[in-house]
Specification:
mainly alpha, 12 helices
C-alpha cells in the first residue's frame, strides 16, 4: 500500500549525488542573483532539485516515499501548471504565480497537518509521545507491533506502545495525517496575502484556483486510494472493494472485532476515495470548461467550486468509515463544510452586488 520510490544507492554515493544537486541549485541561484538567468530558471532548478533529491535522500533517512505523498505532490504540480498556463495566456506575471505556488504548498501542508493534530483524535498521543511515550496505546497485534513498527508489547494491557519518545512526530506529515480543509484554509490566507503583496488581481487569480484546486484534489484522493486511507463503510455493492492485509481498513475492522486478524484482506467497503476523486474531476471540468468562460463577476468560479466541494464532501463523509474527529455525530469536515457554505453564500451575494454596482455606475465625464 505504500510503495517505496527510493533509489537504493550506497550512502557515500547518495551524499555525493545530493551534494551535486545542491551545487547545481546554488549555481543557478548565484547566476540569477547576478542577472545572468531569469528567475524562472531558479524556480525550475529548485523544483527539479527537490524531485531528484527526494528518492536519493529517502534511504539515508530510512524512510520510504509513500505513494500518498507522491500523488499529493503530483496534484500540486498539475494544479499550478494549469495556473501558470492561464497566467501566460492572460499576460499576468507567471513567475509570481510560481512563487504563489511555493507559498501555498508550504502553508497548505502546514495547515493540513496542524488541523489533523488537533481534530483527528490524536492530539494527546502526540503530547504523550513527547512527554511520556509509555502512555501511548496503539491497538495493534503483537506481531505487527514488534516486527513491523518496532514497538514494545505491553502484555499486561494487551496493547502496543512506542519503544521511544518522539517530540517531532506531529510534524512528520509524510507519514500521513493531513486534513484537506486545513490545507485549504492555510493556503488561502497565505495566498491572498501574497497576491495583495505583489499586486496581482486577487479575485481573477482565485477564480483559476476554483478549477485548479479540485483538479489537484483528484490526484490527492488517488493517493488516498493507494495508501488505503479514507475508505468507506462496509457494503455488498458491486462497487465495493477489498483492501490488502494490514491496510487501514483491515486494521479498523480488526479493532471492531469484524476480523480475526489485521493480517488478512479487509471486508468489502465502498471506495470513498475514488468517489471523491471522480467528484472533484467533475467539479474541475465544470468550472474550467463551462463556468469560467461564462462567469459574470470575478470570484464567482472560486465560490461556486468551493460550495460544490463542500456539498460533495458533506455527503461523502456519511459513507466514510475511517477514524475521524467529530462533534454530535457530525464529522469535523462536515462542520467546516456547513460553515463554509454559509460564508460562501454571503461572499457570492456581496461579490455579485459589487459587480452590479460597478456596471451601473455612471461613466466619468470626458476631459
Amino acid at each position: 500500500m505504500k510503495p517505496d520510490f527510493a533509489l537504493e544507492l550506497a550512502p557515500n554515493v547518495a551524499i555525493v549525488v545530493l551534494t551535486l544537486i545542491g551545487a547545481l541549485v546554488a549555481g543557478v541561484y548565484a547566476a540569477q542573483r547576478a542577472g545572468k538567468v531569469p528567475r524562472l530558471w531558479l524556480q525550475g532548478a529548485v523544483v527539479l532539485g527537490v524531485v531528484l533529491a527526494t528518492p536519493v535522500a529517502a534511504p539515508l533517512l530510512d524512510e520510504p516515499l509513500p505513494a500518498y505523498f507522491a500523488m499529493l505532490m503530483m496534484g500540486f504540480i498539475v494544479a499550478f501548471s494549469v495556473a501558470v498556463v492561464w497566467a501566460v495566456r492572460t499576460g499576468i506575471d507567471h513567475e509570481e504565480i510560481i512563487d504563489l505556488g511555493l507559498v501555498c504548498l508550504i502553508t497548505g501542508v502546514a495547515g493540513a497537518r496542524i488541523l489533523h493534530v488537533f481534530v483527528d483524535g490524536y492530539f494527546m498521543d502526540y503530547v504523550h509521545l513527547c512527554t511520556d511515550h509509555t502512555l501511548v496505546e496503539w491497538p495493534l497485534p503483537r506481531g505487527q507491533c514488534t516486527a513491523e513498527i518496532g514497538g514494545t508489547w505491553d502484555a499486561a494491557a494487551g496493547v502496543c506502545r512506542p519503544a521511544e519518545g518522539d517530540c517531532f512526530a506531529w510534524m512528520k506529515f509524510w507519514n500521513g495525517g493531513l486534513v484537506w480543509y486545513g490545507g485549504l484554509i492555510g493556503a488561502s490566507f497565505a495566498g491572498i496575502w501574497f497576491l495583495k503583496r505583489v499586486g496581482l488581481p486577487v479575485l481573477k487569480v482565485v477564480d483559476v484556483a476554483g478549477y485548479a484546486i479540485p483538479l489537484g484534489v483528484f490526484f490527492g484522493r488517488l493517493g488516498c486510494w493507494f495508501g488505503g486511507c479514507c475508505f468507506g463503510v462496509q457494503s455488498d455493492s458491486w462497487l465495493a472493494v477489498r483492501f490488502p492485509a494490514w491496510s487501514p481498513a483491515s486494521e479498523k475492522q480488526y479493532r471492531e472485532h469484524l476480523l480475526d486478524h489485521p493480517g488478512v484482506e479487509s471486508l468489502a467497503v465502498l471506495p470513498a476515495q475514488l468517489f471523491e476523486a471522480v467528484g472533484c474531476l467533475v467539479i474541475a471540468a465544470f468550472c474550467m470548461m463551462w463556468l469560467h468562460p461564462r462567469k459574470r463577476f470575478d470570484g464567482q468560479v472560486f465560490v461556486v467550486s468551493m460550495a460544490l466541494y463542500a456539498v460533495l464532501r458533506f455527503f461523502l463523509e456519511i459513507i466514510r468509515a475511517d477514524d475521524r474527529g467529530g462533534v454530535l455525530g457530525v464529522s469535523t469536515s462536515q462542520w467546516i463544510g456547513l460553515l463554509a457554505l454559509a460564508g460562501l453564500g454571503v461572499a457570492y451575494a456581496k461579490l455579485r452586488e459589487r459587480a452590479k454596482a460597478r456596471l451601473s455606475a455612471p461613466l466619468p465625464d470626458a476631459a
